[in-house]
Write a structure and sequence with these properties.
With 391 residues, this protein is an alpha+beta fold. It has two domains: 226 residues, Peroxisomal Thiolase, Chain A, domain 1 (3-Layer(aba) Sandwich), CATH 3.40.47; 155 residues, Thiolase/Chalcone synthase (Peroxisomal Thiolase, Chain A, domain 1), CATH 3.40.47.10. 34% of the residues lie in helices and 27% in strands. It contains twelve helices and 17 strands. Strand 16 and strand 17 form a beta hairpin. Helix 3 crosses helix 4, helix 6 crosses helix 7 and helix 7 packs across helix 8. It starts with 6 loop residues before the first strand and ends with a strand. The model has no long low-confidence stretch (mean pLDDT 97).
């Protein structure tokens, strides 16, 4: 493979759930000033899954347009990143492989490190393509974030899946230069095996995130990365969108650059459109930010975008991507806006009812109601097995 051959994201698609809870409804029901959500968190709504939607159905729905456009023949690997896995042994991507009708000669694995996992998967994929430029790797990030009802984190919940086709000579984005890395053993956010919802130390979480921004950026620059002024926009992992602005302010201060609202808005605002209405999608979050940047920033041909990926616990990475000429003809903006806009708004009691539901754990036969509007659904459970089907 020649040194000049670019490797990166050839195609990008995301999907979310069929339902949405608006934060005006959440605030009305719990007696909170909606400004706390709209201005304090930067969140306006959150995606809510139906009973027959999960990380597999979202992942398959996100990847389906990629397989339809490019075909399955060159896909040799599927890497699914998630922190809300459905099985302690079997990779969720194996179900996705079946739903998409991919050929048998494919490796499928699952990757976990909180919200950072999809970036690890992307880097693994780039290495595989470097080794064999004829193959393509399907990387999928899929998560449903859940916190305890009536907890401070409840308003930041969300769900989405982002699928990326990684290849040589990509149509959208080329991965460039070094990566800046940062790891610290902190307990800012975690979910033990025996819990269905995460535990969060809010103050520690923000501090750990901002420490990781500075640490990853310093490592990136120490390894010869581009200076701040070379970047058109910065795509941050967004547990809630206001944190992205706070993170960029910290980065600007680290670089000794101006931190006025105009500078923050120019670099970050184009990236928040999907996350502010979908909510925290964990591994998919930074790639929803990337999708928004590609669709909202004008004239990105040849421009550089910075990505900061963070996973609590904590692991972080900062890396750069160069937008390829002619990228706009490959975007899926209409489909993404439709996926977000077609969600059915639900009231607070419906949301609470869905949250109180749980799947049986005794191995009995259980059929789920057909509620999803997506192309795939979780149809039943039988003998401790999940049964998926096309919807």
């Amino acid at each position: 493979m020649s040194a000049e051959t670019a490797i990166g994201i050839h195609d990008l698609s995301f999907r979310t759930t069929s339902l949405v809870l608006n934060h005006t409804e959440l605030a009305r029901s719990n007696g909170t000033d909606v400004g706390k959500y709209h201005k304090g968190l930067g969140q306006h709504a959150m995606s809510v899954p139906t009973a027959d939607e999960d990380i597999v159905t979202m992942a398959a729905a996100a990847a389906l347009p990629l397989v339809r456009r490019h075909g399955p023949d060159r896909i040799r690997t599927v890497v699914l990143a998630t922190e809300s896995s459905i099985d302690q042994s079997k990779a969720a991507g194996v179900y996705v492989h079946s739903l998409l009708g991919l050929p048998p000669h494919v490796r499928v694995v699952e990757v976990k490190q909180a919200c950072y996992g999809a970036t690890a998967a992307l880097q693994f994929a780039a290495g595989l393509v470097h080794r064999d430029p004829e193959q393509q790797v399907l990387v999928i990030a899929s998560d449903i974030s859940r916190y305890d009802l009536d907890s401070p984190g409840e308003a930041t919940q969300g769900a989405a899946a982002a699928a990326m086709l990684v290849s040589a000579d990509p149509a959208l984005l080329e991965l460039t230069g070094p990566s800046g890395l940062f790891t610290a053993d902190v307990m800012d956010f975690w979910r033990p095996n025996y819990r269905a919802t995460a535990l969060v130390n809010g103050k520690e979480s923000v501090t750990a995130y901002l420490d990781a921004v500075e640490g990853a950026w310093r490592d990136y620059r120490d390894r010869g990365g581009l200076p701040l002024e070379e970047f058109r926009a910065f795509c941050y992992h967004q547990p809630y969108t206001r944190l992205a602005f706070k993170a960029h302010r910290a980065l600007l201060e680290t670089c000794g650059a101006r931190t006025d609202e105009e500078a923050l808005h120019h670099a970050v605002a184009p990236t928040t459109g999907y996350n502010e209405t979908v909510g925290n999608s964990y591994t998919a979050s930074v790639y929803l930010a990337l999708t928004a940047a590609l669709e909202n920033c004008p004239d990105l041909d040849g421009r550089t975008l910075g990505l900061f990926s963070y996973g609590s616990g904590s692991v972080a990475e900062f890396f750069a991507t160069r937008v390829r000429p002619g990228y706009r003809s490959h975007l899926r903006a209409d489909a993404h806006r439709e996926a977000v806009g077609a969600r059915q708004a639900i009231d607070y009691e419906t949301y609470r009812g869905l949250r109180r539901q749980s799947l049986p754990t005794d191995g009995s036969w259980y059929e789920l109601p057909h509620q999803t509007r997506g192309p795939f659904r979780l149809a039943a459970l039988r003998d401790h097995q999940r049964i998926y089907e096309a919807a």
